[in-house]
Specification:
TIM Barrel, 18 helices, 41% helix, Double Stranded RNA Binding Domain, 3 domains, 542 residues
């Protein structure tokens, strides 16, 4: 079995995606993560593009890499320019990486309409650049841009461009579906023809304009490619590049191919890590790595998964570092509630009357507009209330929120006044904010922090508002979902009301109480692991 080489171009091609960019520090962090993950190549950037990419190449030389080789990217020399005078080639050499990846034209349309040169000059540009880089000791990967379009136009010319690279020492020939419009059967047939014609490492580089990039990459491997290029989460220009987070498990887990040192269990982690550094919301519907990839909602499905996970899961989520999620909603049955409760650490049996009671409460609340799929913390508090284990950490005595516009050119001013009781103490606090919810959050924190300093660690990371019955216009009910984090864990809470401030308050209270309950549980668990607790367990056992 031949090893499949995984070539990541997130830091170069991925950065051409709309709305994303990385600092030098961010690029270095992702490169380190990719190396730990086990990819074979990390394409660091376009050597002749910008100073930041050249600074990246300077920094990577100072680091030790466990698994990956760093590649500098560039193009063939300019038309009618001697190779020794070509700026782009000089920059690739200046990057001083062990691997150089260059692209050249494979489609006659590109040669005539874009380069505006002759076909023979295009072949010379490819050959000269590959030969120069090889003479300087580089491993050379040749990306045949627009190869599939070029092959469909003229197989003879497209193959001549590959021959120009191969005869001058290219180590790999990568076939690029640059416009992203080819179909899987075309990719398979053309890759097969190339693999038969050239005894070199054949690679594939796909774009996703027809939503075929992953399928096309896999078909190319079936056709003989052993070098696969792509990006984490499919970032890239237009509709993106082939998504390595889908390709890798398809090749390694589904097809059983040798992917070297790839750590499959880190797949979900690196997917979310890249999104975090790019400040992009993680797509929960991504195959394999998304939060919804192994989420089960329908009661019959959950019942089946409880009996045998393979009934509705094509792989075990743990294989790619993900986890099974049981959703609770109006479609839920007793199995959903039971499994969700067990996941959260509650002891329940299928025959437990509390399961039916939780389900009854759930149905009543959802009729009022509550939704718990993205609000696990609120659902946990609901179970605690049903089990009579809920202890409020404070009591609201009242709040008032004011919004004032002080002039046509002035921003709105928001102020919240809150009065709460903690034990026998009463706190009366005032806070300003960017908006009414922000002010209310600030006032609540002021009131509680001297009693519960841990809430200083909690930050609200997202805030969603949904109108439940829009036909009621401004009198419609509002559902508020809040996501919060303490730097270690994240959780979601929900509130519903005809008043958006009251709905936000409900979600805020659940968010704070969940944090305080969580800390209490952690303290109890730590006490249970202490030496005195262990001594008592030993004595009880003897």
């Amino acid at each position: 079995m031949k090893k499949i080489h995984i070539y990541d171009t997130t830091l170069r091609d991925g950065m051409q995606a709309e709305g994303v960019s990385l600092s030098l520090a961010g690029k270095l962090r992702i490169a380190a993560k990719l190396d730990e993950f086990g990819v074979d190549y990390i394409e660091g950037g376009f050597a002749a593009s910008n100073p930041k990419d050249m600074e990246f190449f300077s920094e990577v030389k100072k680091r030790r890499w466990k698994n990956a080789r760093v590649a500098a990217f560039g193009s063939t020399r300019r038309a009618n320019t001697p190779i020794g005078e070509d700026h782009g080639t000089k920059q690739i050499l200046a990057a001083d990486t062990k691997v150089a990846t260059i692209f050249g034209k494979s489609w006659r349309l590109q040669v005539s309409d874009v380069l505006r040169t002759s076909e023979n000059e295009n072949l010379a540009m490819i050959g000269d650049t590959v030969r120069c880089l090889k003479e300087h000791g580089r491993e050379v990967i040749y990306d045949a841009e627009h190869f599939f379009d070029g092959y469909k136009d003229s197989p003879e010319f497209a193959l001549r461009t590959l021959k120009a690279a191969a005869e001058n020492g290219a180590d790999a020939l990568v076939l690029c579906d640059t416009r992203g419009g080819s179909l899987p059967h075309e990719i398979f047939e053309i890759t097969s023809a190339v693999a038969k014609a050239f005894p070199l490492r054949i690679g594939i580089h796909c774009h996703n304009d027809a939503e075929m990039a992953v399928a096309n990459s896999i078909e190319s491997v079936r056709g003989g490619a052993i070098h696969v290029q792509g990006t984490i989460n499919g970032f890239g220009e237009r509709c993106g590049n082939a998504n390595l987070c889908s390709i890798i498990p398809c090749l390694g887990i589904k097809m059983g191919l040798d992917l070297g040192k790839i750590n499959f269990k880190e797949l979900a982690n690196i997917s979310r890590f890249v999104d975090m550094l790019l400040n992009v919301a993680h797509d929960r519907r991504l195959p394999y790595v998304g939060e919804s990839a192994f989420a089960h909602k329908a009661g019959m499905h959950v019942n089946a998964v409880e009996k045998n996970p393979a009934s509705f899961e094509h792989i075990a989520p743990e294989q790619v570092g993900n986890e099974r999620r049981i959703l609770v909603s109006e479609l839920a049955g007793g199995s959903n509630v039971l499994l969700k409760a067990v996941q959260m650490g509650f002891e329940m049996s299928r025959s437990s009357p509390q399961v039916k009671e939780v389900l009854s409460h759930l149905e009543q609340l959802e009729q009022k507009g509550y939704e718990f799929e993205g609000a696990d913390a609120s659902f946990k508090i609901l179970i605690q209330k049903v089990l009579k284990k809920h202890r409020p950490f404070f009591e609201l005595l009242g709040f008032r929120v004011a919004v004032e516009k002080r002039g046509p050119a002035e921003p709105c001013y928001s102020e919240a006044i809150i009065k709460v009781k903690i034990g026998n103490a009463v706190e009366h606090c005032v806070a300003e904010g960017d908006g009414p919810v922000n002010a209310l959050d600030g006032a609540l924190r002021l009131a509680l922090k001297k009693f519960y300093p841990a809430i200083d660690k909690v930050s609200l990371t997202d805030y969603h508002v949904r109108i439940i019955d829009p036909e009621e216009a401004t009198a419609a009910k509002t559902r508020v979902l809040i996501e919060a984090s303490d730097g270690t864990d994240s959780w979601g809470t929900v509130g519903v009301s005809g008043n958006i401030i009251e709905a936000s308050w409900e979600a805020l209270v659940d968010s704070v109480e969940y944090k305080l309950f969580k800390d209490e549980e952690n303290k109890k668990a730590q006490r249970g692991k202490g030496p005195e607790a262990q001594r008592k367990k030993t004595e009880a056992g003897s």
